[in-house]
Structures are given as structure tokens and as C-alpha cells.
Amino acid sequence: MVGAKILILPGDGIGSEIMAEAVALLEALRAAGDLDVELETAAIGGAAIDATGQPLPEATLALAREADAILLGAVGGPRWDKIERDLRPERGLLRLRSALGVFANLRPAVMYPQLVSASSLKPDVVSGLDVLIVRELTGGIYFGQPRGIRTRAGTNEREGFNTLVYSESEIERICRVGFDLARKRGRRLCSVDKANVLETSELWREVAERVSADYADVELSHMYVDNAAMQLVRSPKQFDVMVTTNMFGDILSDLASMLTGSIGMLPSASMDAAGKGLYEPIHGAAPDIAGKGVANPLATILSAAMLLRYTLGRGELADRIEAAVGRVLDQGLRTADIQSPGTRVVGTREMGQAVIDAL
Ligand code: NAD
After folding, report:
1. Smallest Cα–Cα separation from 135: which of 8, 319, 282?
2. What is the average per-residue pLDDT within 211-233?
3. What residues does ligand 1 touch, defined as CB less than 6 Å away?
4. How many domains does the chain have?
5. Which of these three, 262, 281, 312, is where a domain ends?
6. In the predicted model, what is the mean pLDDT of residues 198-218?
7. 20 to 30 Å CA-CA from 154: which of 72, 199, 258, 349?
């Protein structure tokens, strides 16, 4: 994509520190003539509340709609925790995701060989791990209507209720994302559901089977979500790509990410049907370390790599960035969150610069 527009949303807490490193890397690629992009920066989250009273100002949303891709740091922090729920920083992010219609959330969990000892699981269970969880992000029980808390008919007791609903087209489009990605990787797709109990899952399974007819080169399997949680801990390397609903994916992707032992390392992408994407590290604004210059910028740098691969079609540049991260880890450089005996602990700035140097 020539002259692609990338919107930079640093957000709150460590957001501006980690984003500075990802931006420096994109600028370095641009200066070297390897990348033709325009970068623009806007406010979201607490920073936007302070400036405008809104966690997602109209001006930011307009820029996000115009951009080809968005790179986001993180939002939130104790300063804004007492504001009414609808005006909190996290609402800005939820609103942005739903306004952009980014229905496919891609969460890779990749074990860097240099970090195997950071996992809570045994080295032979996790070394070489590379799974990609594809989570449906804009439907299912988090969005279904009706929802609420009401008094149960004929009693004084209250009950909470939510609705789990998926249309065939919603299931089909997320399954296609899963199949397309599996086709570019290990050609195995595991669809995770609860078809023994839920009608929604019965339909999900039927649609997944139907879509699989278009992907004869990808092997489709099905697994109940409870078993999938167990298998991810028992033997995670059996999986290549997993595709699942919003809530199951929420839980399984957090579980899978921690197999790699390091929240500061993991990127994510949320994409619409046209390939436009919102890219962000999976971690939050980390107020406990904000302003100290010690946050790990690698998840944000790796999110920028995903942006290059999935929205700009620059897989070869993404490969180069990922390889550079590997080389920096080989050199023994670590931010505090991934340190281990015998490594050298560096700050955010030095880690970001080391990746640029390794490129
Ligand atoms: P968190 O991910 O911000 O932090 C959890 C722990 O991980 C902290 O100890 C933190 O220091 C550490 N950590 C996180 N990222 C790190 C990095 N890059 N390098 C080194 N260490 C890192 O989660 P939390 O503490 O539950 O939430 C803090 C705030 O962030 C809250 O306001 C929350 O709502 C918000 N949040 C935002 C997002 C997002 O923007 N997508 C996601 C999760 C939480």
C-alpha cells in the first residue's frame, strides 16, 4: 500500500513510552526508504478525557475512520477510575473497536526460545509454541440484546440476563478469517465451541463445516471449550490456528498468552472485512511502572509488525522486525519484566534502539 495512513494513539500510562519506540522504528524504516507511510497522532482514553472530556473524541474517531490502520498503546489508570462507567478511558477503546467494525481479533502466542524459562510451564511443553487465536470481537454474549438486571416474574428476587446470539453471516466471516490464516501457516484450524450444550454452537459448527468446503487444503477440527482450555495447558503445541466466539476467545487467548510467560511481549490485531486493522499490545497502561522508562516496548513493536503484515501486505518487513527482536533477545538484552539470571536489564529506550540497530 503506497503512502498508507497510520493513526498513532499512544493513550495513557506507559502508552506514550512504548509507542515512542514503535514510532521510532517506523520512522527508521521510512528514512531507509523501506516504508512509505504517513503517521498522525491523536488522543484517546484518559489523555483525551483530560483534553476534551471524552474518552474517544469525535476528531480522533474521524482520523481513525480515515486511516488505513491504527496503532494503539494502552488506555486507563487510577486517575480516571472514579468517573462514571460510560466516560471511562476503556469505553473509548470499546467504542473505537465497535465503530470501526473490527470483528476479527488475532492473538498470536509465540514462544521466543530465549524466554522459555519465563513460562510457568515446563520447557518441553512450551518451547517452539506458535498458536494463533482468532476471536470474534463484535458479537456474541458481550453485545447480544436483551440484557440487563430485572426482577424475576412473581418474586422479589433480581436476576441478571445476557443473550448469546450469532448469525450465520457473523460465524461465516470469522471462520473465513481463521481458514485464510491457517492456509498461510500450518493449515490446521481448530474451531472451539460448546456444541454439546448451546444451540449457537450447533449452528457455529454447521457453518464452520460448510465454509471448510472452500478450504480443502486446511484441516478443520472441532473442540469443546472446556477441553480446549485443558489442552492448551496440557499440550499447546497441538494447535496451529484456533477460531472461536467472543467470550470463549477472551478467556482462551489470555490463557494462551500467559503460556509464553510475558505480557510485555504479545501483540494483537483487530481487523475488519477489508483488512483495515487496529493493532495494540495485549497489556494495559501499567500505571505501576508508568513514567519510569522501564516498560517493555516489544509487544507494541511486534504489533507494528502485525500491522505491516496484515494491513499493508508487507510480510517481509514484518519478518525482519520479528527477526530483529529475536536477535536482541539473543544478545541477552531484557526489560525488567522478562529478565532472568545472566541477562542484561535495559530500559524502554535502550530496548527500542536495540531493535532498530538489529534491523
Ligand atoms: P496491565 O496490563 O496494565 O498491567 C499488569 C501488570 O503487567 C503490571 O504489573 C504491569 O506493570 C505489567 N506490565 C504490563 N505491560 C507491561 C510492559 N509493557 N512492560 C512491563 N510490564 C508490563 O493491567 P492492569 O494493571 O490490570 O490495568 C492497568 C490499567 O490498564 C487499568 O486502567 C486497565 O483498565 C487498563 N487496561 C487497558 C488495556 C488496553 O488499553 N487494551 C488492557 C488491559 C488493561
Report:
1. 282
2. 98
3. 14, 18, 74-77, 90, 93, 263-264, 280, 283-289, 295-296, 299, 335, 337
4. 2
5. 262
6. 98
7. 199
267 lies in a domain? no
Residues 96 and 126 in one domain: no
- Which tens digits make up the pLDDT trace of 239-252? 999 999 999 999 99
Nearest to 176 by CA among 135, 206, 212: 212
Report the length, in residues, of the chain: 359
The residue to mutate among 260, 283, 351, having the most atoms of ligand 1 within 8 angstroms of its beta carbon, is 283
Atom number in ligand 1 closest to CA 297: 18
Q: Are 174 and 134 in contact (CB under 8 A)?
A: yes
Residues labelled catalytic? 142, 194, 226, 250, 254
**167: nearest Cα among 103, 96, 236, 115:** 103
Q: Whose CA is nearest to atom 20 of ligand 1?
A: 295
Q: Are 168 and 199 in contact (CB under 8 A)?
A: no
Residue nearest to atom 12 of ligand 1 (CA): 286
Average pLDDT for 186-190 = 98
Amino acid at 36: D
CATH number at residue 209: 3.40.718.10
Closest ligand 1 atom to the C-alpha of 14?
Answer: 18
Say whether both 226 and 280 belong to one domain: no
Asked if residue 183 and residue 54 are part of one domain, the reply reads: no
Please give the radius of gyration of the chain, using alpha carbons only, rounded to the nearest integer: 21
**Distance from residue 76's CA to the centre of ligand 1 (Å):** 9
Average pLDDT over residues 297-312: 97
Q: In this predicted structure, what is the pLDDT of residue 202?
A: 98
Under 8 Å CB-to-CB from 340, ≥6 apart: which residues?
115, 117, 118, 334
Which residue among 263, 296, 333 has the greatest number of ligand 1 atoms within 8 angstroms of its CB, and so is best to mutate? 263
The pLDDT of residue 263:
85
Q: Whose CA is nearest to atom 44 of ligand 1?
A: 284
| Beta-bridge mates of residue 106 | 134, 269
Q: Does position 334 have pLDDT exceeding 80, yes or no?
A: yes
Q: What is the pairing mode between strands 69-74 and 4-11?
A: parallel
